[in-house]
Design a protein that fits this description.
10 helices; 4-stranded mixed β-sheet; alpha+beta
Length: 376
């Protein structure tokens, strides 16, 4: 289950259960107020300081700027749990087809969200390295909550981190890329909405109009030098947003294709327990005759980090690259796919997405294969 970021978060954060319980008791709609955020921040800081004191001095991070972003990840994790722990797992072959399918002109009106909050897992994308620092995109949280923009949070995974080591949330903190997409205009294209979102994100961090309040202040009868770091922090945040944007746009291709897929091809999604789920517990669950017994076993599985997953793409036939006599794969390229927002029904008033799938063109075959339409 460590493939999925929500489980990595649960394993590494000592406060994970505490904040979920706080949400369930105080934030039923999943939208925290400023007062709630202050309380959550206090919980996280308390655990952070407790865990920090256990580490040797040389392992303590010199830069704690990422800690300020931890609250956002914590909120996203808690809302994910509150809304049902729904995960969509996209198989590698399907993910590759998504990478080769254009989505820029898909209107936001065509997007339908299966849940208010859920996680999409694409597996590590080794060419999508945010900020070129070894943070590889592997999935995304999607939050479509009433009254708020569509929130997309790219999760990342590192190759050099042991996620079973529970100190890594301090020594190797998570990094993510966040954008809020304004989808009020149903006819706006994805490309327009995303470019607009970057502009808004940069504006939200602009504090150039605020004064530098560094100086000497009298506190409890003593003169204390205070450094106002907001301008430097804002510049770093803006730099992160700009530098990571191209990777975000490429990763968004996975997200939007994933949304189109789960909207249009629900019959090809299979909900099941992951392969690594303890077989003994699954047998007990299958053989349980009482609802109370089944609930108890499910609770035990949840406490161990196991949940049913929506597997996508296991029935799609895979393109096979032929081998030449040397045993090497013949180089190939893709003819790109796209989504057709097709009219149908009485008076052609309704719309449905039809996937014109990408085609793998093999150089040894000369002419490309005939394309095909993937119909729901």
């Amino acid at each position: 289950m460590l493939r999925y970021h929500p489980e990595r978060f649960r394993v590494t954060r000592p406060y994970a259960k505490q904040i979920v319980n706080f949400f369930r008791s105080n934030i039923s709609d999943g939208i925290p107020s400023m007062v709630h955020l202050q309380e959550l921040s206090g919980m996280i800081m308390k655990k952070y300081n407790e865990e920090l004191m256990k580490l040797p001095f040389e392992k303590r991070p010199p830069d704690t700027r990422q800690l300020s972003k931890e609250i956002s990840y914590a909120v996203q994790y808690a809302t994910f749990v509150m809304y049902g722990r729904n995960i969509f797992h996209f198989e590698p072959d399907l993910t590759e087809k998504f990478r080769q399918t254009d989505v820029d002109e898909v209107p936001v009106s065509a997007l339908i969200y299966p849940y208010k909050v859920f996680y999409m897992s694409f597996g590590i994308q080794e060419d999508l390295d945010l900020w070129h620092q070894g943070y590889y995109v592997d999935g995304a949280y999607i939050a479509a909550l009433p009254g708020l923009p569509l929130q997309i949070i790219l999760s990342t995974v590192r190759k050099d981190v042991d996620y079973k080591d529970k100190t890594n949330w301090i020594t190797n903190p998570d990094r993510y890329y966040y954008l809020a997409l304004n989808i009020d205009n149903p006819e706006a294209s994805i490309s327009f909405v995303v470019d607009q979102a970057l502009e808004e994100e940069i504006k939200s961090h602009d504090v150039s109009h605020l004064p530098d309040e560094s100086g000497v202040y009298e506190i409890d009868g003593q003169n204390i030098m205070m450094i106002d770091n907001k301008h430097n922090s804002a510049e770093l945040d803006i730099s992160d947003a700009k530098q990571g944007f191209n990777v975000f746009k490429e990763a968004l291709r996975l997200v939007i294709n994933g949304l189109c897929y789960v909207t249009s091809y629900r019959e090809e999604i299979k909900e099941q327990w992951p392969d690594e789920t303890p077989k003994l517990l699954l047998e007990r669950l299958t053989n349980a005759t009482k609802n109370s017994s089944r609930q108890k076993i499910r609770a035990e599985l949840t406490s161990l980090g196991y949940t049913k997953v929506n597997f996508c793409g296991r029935t799609i036939s895979k393109d096979k690259v032929e081998l030449i006599s040397s045993g090497k794969e013949i180089s190939a390229h893709w003819r790109r796919g796209h989504w057709r927002n097709q009219a149908y029904g009485q008076g052609l008033k309704d719309r449905k997405l039809i996937w014109i799938m990408p085609v793998l063109v093999r150089k040894d075959k000369g002419e490309p294969e005939l394309g095909h339409i993937y119909k729901p």
